[in-house]
Amino acid sequence: MLLIQILQHTPTWVFGLFAGLLALGGRQMFATQAGLPRLAVMPLAMAGLSAYGVVSAFGSAPADVAAWALAAAAALALVLRSPLPQGVRFDKGEMRFTLPGTPVPLLLTMGIFFTKYAVGVLLAMHPEMARQAGFALAMSALYGAFAGLFLGRSLRLWKLALRAAPVSQMAASPAK
Q1: Cα 81 to Cα 77: distance, rounded to the nearest angstrom
Q2: I need a labelling partner for 39 at 20 to 30 A (CA). Which of 46, 56, 96, 158 fits?
Q3: What is the pLDDT of residues 76-96, one digit of tens each?
């Protein structure tokens, strides 16, 4: 009964956003090719959405922003230490990646979406939770971890491209 009330009070645009993010993440479950600019857009957008989640829910309290930044940095460092998935290739002539399909972007995208949704519902039902330091810090760190994972995955690919192609070639390549 409560779930039905929550869904009924959810603005319609949220369902559209959910569908769009689901489609965007779902597309990455299949092998694809992508240029460098495209590989930067989604991670930057998701990092922005996660930072917005912190600020919109808890304001810009220094402790919450620090929790977001520290978790983002830790997750980013963790991902940068891990190897690229099997099947990732970079064609320096075309300046394009061949990427195997993976559910990871979908899971990360849905993680940010559902965290933002759940925090929004909780704060609508219990506004006092926004002032509870433990809750704000934990959610800020969770948002930051999602951002760091997204950014780290993209930076690994950029590192591969930088090793394979000189910077002058990367600057001159057309955006595809």
Answers
A1: 6
A2: 56
A3: 999 999 999 999 999 998 899
């891990």: which residue's tokens? Answer: 82
Positive or negative torsion for Cα 69, 70, 72, 76: positive
- Amino acid at site 22: L
For the segment 140-164, what is each residue's pLDDT rounded down to a tens digit? 999 999 999 999 999 999 999 988 8
b/e sequence 82-113, b meaning 16+ C-beta within 10 Å = eebeeeeebeeeebbbebeebeebbebbbbbb
Number of domains making up the chain: 1
Q: Name residue, tokens 């959910």.
A: 18
Q: Tell me if 71 is assigned to some domain.
A: yes
Q: At 18, which helix (H) or strand (E)?
A: helix 12-27
Can you give the pTM of this predicted structure?
0.85
Q: Determine the Cα–Cα distance for residues 40 and 22; give it in Å rounded to an integer.
A: 18
Kindly state whether residue 11 falls inside one of the protein's structural domains. Answer: no
Nearest to 53 by CA among 125, 144, 132, 126: 144
Residue 109's nearest CA partner among 11, 39, 22 is: 22
